[in-house]
Amino acid sequence: MSALSARGLVCGWGGTRVVEAFDLAVEAGEVVLIAGPNGAGKTTAMLTLVGAIRPLAGTVAISDRVARARLDVRARAGLAFVPEGRHVFARLTVRDNLRLGRGPVARALGLFPQLESLLGRTAGTLSGGEQQMLRLARALAGEPSVLLVDELSLGLAPRVVAQLLACVREAADAGTAVVIVEQHVRLAVPVADRACVLTRGRIELRMTGAEMSARLPEIEAAYLSTARRDEARSADPS
Q1: Which of 180, 190, 185, 189 is closest to 222 using CA atoms?
Q2: pLDDT digits (tens, 9 = 90+) for 3-57
Q3: Which residues make Cβ contacts (< 8 Å) with residue 119, sequence separation at least 6?
């Protein structure tokens, strides 16, 4: 039984088809990486998986039951989503941001002890890396059965990303099914069990994480060259 699956999924906006024939199955305890260049349709696929937008065709299933409910209903059923960008409640404190999650604050702090000294700070004053820690801690504290993360590395230094992805890997090892959408695959492939490459709205390659790691120069040259150029400009020291 797959924790999360998509069959024949067609994703898009306003009737415009962005992603076609999208099939994916994620088991409890594994990390699946969806890689691809800008404009490939990764975020559109992710938003469809979580229920933020309706599929134009095909189905999404959670624990082999077709999911038709809204994102908030799926969240209460154990799905957690960390979208692209640094979406925190900027005027609330770190403590209050964590309280708005589905798990206890103490569990979130156990994942990221650095946040404890920041509990009284307003979230909008945190660095980019601290905001990403806050968002991921809030999601993981609820011990979700399914976790979807979109572009976790965006604008962050590699050392910060490594810590974030280590927590994602630990969540999978504890039984969570994880999907990571990531443009900068060199940062994410070490924690992935399986990987696929999405280009022009279709999955072009499927392989294990180890196979992608071994073939990374070839895959980057053929599919991800724009992503590699952007990566060199993306990191800040936060």
Answers
A1: 185
A2: 999 999 999 998 899 999 999 999 999 999 999 988 899 999 999 999 999 999 9
A3: 93, 94, 95, 98
At 55, the amino acid letter reads: P
Contact 63, 83 (CB under 8 A): no
- pLDDT, average across residues 220-237: 58
Tokens 């990764």 belong to which residue? Answer: 42
Q: Look up the pTM and report it.
A: 0.90
| C-beta atoms surrounding 166 within 10 Å | 12
- Measured CA to CA, the distance from residue 136 to residue 152 in angstroms comes to 9
Distance CA 117, CA 22 (A): 43
Nearest to 180 by CA among 37, 82, 79: 82
Give Cα separations from 106 to 102, 112, 188 (angstroms): 12, 10, 27
CA terminus-to-terminus distance, the chain: 40
